Write the structure tokens for this entry.
Amino acid sequence: MSWKKPKDSARGCSQYNICRGERNYSRFSSSDFSTSLGLEDFSVSDTSGTEEDTDSAVLYGTLRGSVVGLRYYTGIVNNNEMVALQREPSNPYDKNAVKVNNVNGDQVGHIKKELAAALAGIMDNKLALIEGVVPYGAKNAFTMPVQMSFWGREENKEAVLDQLKRHGFKLAPPLKECDFASKWISARAGPSYSAPVHAAVQLTPEQLKSEFDKLFEDLKEDDKTCELEGAEAVATLLLPHQKQALAWMVSRENSNDLPPFWEERSNFYYNTLTNFAEKQRPKNVIGGILADDMGLGKTLTTIALILTNFQDGKPLPVQKIPTVTPLRMTSVFSGTTSIQSVETKYSGDGPSATLIVCPLSVLSNWIDQFEQHIHQNFHVNIYVYYGSDRSRDPSFLSEQDIVLTTYNILATDYGMRGDSPLHKVTWLRIVLDEGHTIRNPNAQQTKAALNLDGHRRWVLTGTPIQNSVKDLWSLISFLKLKPFTDREWWHRTIQRPVTMGAPGGLGRLQSLIRSITLRRTKKSKIKGKPVLELPERKVLIQHITLTEEERQIYQSVKKEGKAAISRFFSEGTVLAHYADILGVLLRLRQLCCHPRLCINTSSSSFSAGDKTPEEVHEMLVNKMKLVLSSGSDEECAVCLESLTVPVITRCAHVFCRPCIFEVIRSEQPNAKCPLCRSELRAEHLVECPLEGEIDSSNEKKSDQEWISSSKINALMHALIELRRDDPTAKCLVVSQFTTFLSLIENPLKESGFAFTRLDGSMAQKKRVEAIQCFQSSQAGSPTVMLLSLKAGGVGLNLTAASRVFLMDPAWNPAAEDQCFDRCHRLGQKHSVVITKFIVKDSVEENMLKIQKKKRELAAGAFATKKPSASEIKQTKINEIKALIDL
DNA sequence: ACCGCCGGGTGCC
DNA sequence: ACCGCCGGGTGCC
């Protein structure tokens, strides 16, 4: 294989310049920041957009109208076929013009002008969504009837009815779309009862997800259970479920089935959802969604696909070893691809390059996996399209076998209209890794991805549905499934029927998903055996007793903090002092680890006092650092999710930036803090300091003489014992406090341990190095990794470790579990033992209790709806009480 | 006849 | 369009 970035083809540990100076967040705009974190859903423009809030739409009623001017257009329509109404304000004859298009987007005619005059205002002001169906008469040469349904928000109904009335129209009561056919046939069959307008069933996200998973529970002996061995070029043996996935993916790339909901009927291809028909055979998706749970090896399977179904349904050919002549040598080492091209290009014409788009956090994982899984006798050109010096030459890119890039680069390039090399190439295959990244249809990344040109299209994601069916549209659209690429048809035929609980809606969704998706969860079974047989995982709790001296410090800080917090309770100002309370708890947690951790924490500023703006700013930044670094996984009280792009208000409450901006926008001019009702102003909001700087203020004390602590002693005792029993055993030492990790470095050095470190402040390149060193099985490679709890994304693979020492408990048990999964995952050969150090009679023990409650809550009925903001507040207050023994 | 009626020309917005 | 509408041709019974 040859790596085109860096330029030489050999590859060493440190040669991926995949980080460059790109991640310079110091002057980030919010959108840069959020997209770089894959949080584009939270961008302000999205939340404030008046775009359809289609979930709350109700059916106002229906109206019969006519479509005229059929003579002049090529679009044809069948009886009962859906049509789209589209405003055409630029029409020179009538500024109210409304076009009528068929499902294919071809114009059929216009709405008659008198009616158009009534509809124009409604459509322009987005008061209602107007959908048409041509009930009959589709063969008419000049005009045809159209049955229109008006959908909108309850509060707009009056305005719409008024507007229609002014033009002499009146809506008929709702008539369910699915009743159309029968209605026209049996028009005299007695009174018609209006169908219920509102959904009978509304699915919660959890129900939806579980419905989704049920789809794949009982895979019969169909194409999804055949197995296919990887081609010779795949260096790794595939597990049974991976061979199944490979077989399925290859068959999807090579088959020529009709896409879902299409039938062949007397020389026509007929869409059963829209009743649209055409002569031309609709193209099937050459690809689909691989939605296996995290950890089942989607990356490996995809690499196997690329190598096994390389071109024209054939695997990657063996590399002919080039006859070594001086001439060739020169060419090879001059960094051009010409010689390789001669040797390895294939008879097939057309595109041969695969584009892989992934979040930055997993880019290095792809690089590793290619390195690991491509057989050394085979040659693959891989180009990492990243960094400011990336090649701008489309023909260079199309000559590669594989081009790897990130969603950000994709979106950035696409933003520079007309100058995106990625968009000038016709790809053989496009793979979107962590495909749910493009969930938001309005995000730049989504638009950029949807506009890529490629034949075979794949989406890899562990969570195809995050919250609602809406999440699926971008993915389906990316797959170029007719007619869903247009959001209107997706919405009318799938999304609304499902969310409104219309009969058959869920069924449609299921058959759609079933036909293009493969999903196995960690619990899925193949021939009675679980897909993943992971070694055992044990969690031990080791209690620590503080020394007399440590206990004294702890008790005095606790006494002081408890007094302050009691005062907040009696004054009823708990929420106003939330950051201060977290500060107290943080200090106690730090004291459980090492007395030196909390020396520097800013002396609490309980008194507001009169301060200069600079001092206020600094105080707020400090408070926010407290909230964030306390590892409490704060939720934003607006969206009830984890904080994304945190900002702090003047009243010291932390929210997601987009959320609080939305509050300010909607409540203007007198917005109030959602938590304490203080005055809220956009210009007073203070942004989050950069990740990695949070703890840096505590750094730089290493010159002091180092002293140990009870916890460190316990750790070292365990490490030394472990080394004695098995000198090659590797372990992770995990803490939320990077300063604590720094302190631990001292005894590790003293006792002669080889160790590495991975924390959030490290550059991408350093991280890759640290991970590779640690994962190496070479003699002398590090046996200990100091790991900060939150470092690294989900892709992080630390399977070399079979022991984990969790130095301090986290608020959120899920964060701990995620951390354990980094070594307890596919590839782990040993049983994993996790040791949690918990100081007796301390805040840590109380945290365990709270964790237990949270676990029970999470395991319990999902059906319970989202708690309200006030319920969350109450829970938090109770937690605080429990934590400090009040 | 400043009407009615006839029949040809014509046709979206 | 096997319509509606327009506007020119025409005109007792």
Q: What stands out?
A: Residues 141-143 of chain A lie near DNA strand C (CB under 10 Å from a C1'). The longest helix of chain A spans residues 548-571.
